[in-house]
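Example 3.2
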Amino acid sequence: MRVLPKALEELIDALGALPGVGPRSAERFAYFLFKQEPSVARRIANEASKIHQEVTYCPKTFALISINESVSPLYDNSSRDKKLVAVVADPCDIVARETPGQFP
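Structure, written as tokens:
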């Protein structure tokens, strides 16, 4: 016997696929979205659907850039030393590295 509507179960399953989101968190997110105005869920869905169309990797630094940029602003910055390289495991780590301004 199913307790939840199929659409809600499927949303919980989909949200549970996100890293760090367990079953209880996925349920809370799904219930939150259901309780909000439909525009909230539409906005999240719309922004998520654009990610693959509007974001790509910089061919020089592999940082994430907008599709209309040719290279990362980090690479394009003339004050940066192009001979000094920081190696990170994931492009998202670049943001963490750059935010405090630790890397020249």
